[in-house]
User: Fold Phosphopantetheine-binding protein from Nonomuraea diastatica.
Amino acid sequence: MENTLRENVAAIIGATPEEIPGDANLVYLGVGSLEMMRLVTKMRRQGITLDFSALAADPTLDAWEGHLREAVQ
Assistant:
């Protein structure tokens, strides 16, 4: 799941998954609120509930992967 999240974010910003440091601020890399909402919606369609406000509050892959791990437990 975490790789899928990284791949989705990479597609949004036009990078490869390996190019995105876990602690990079994704907003600075080009992930806006609309892209975050689309990502949340896409994950919900896969049965994973992520909280948009939690993602927006700490927009790094490390934080998002933590939220993802919690959501799938």
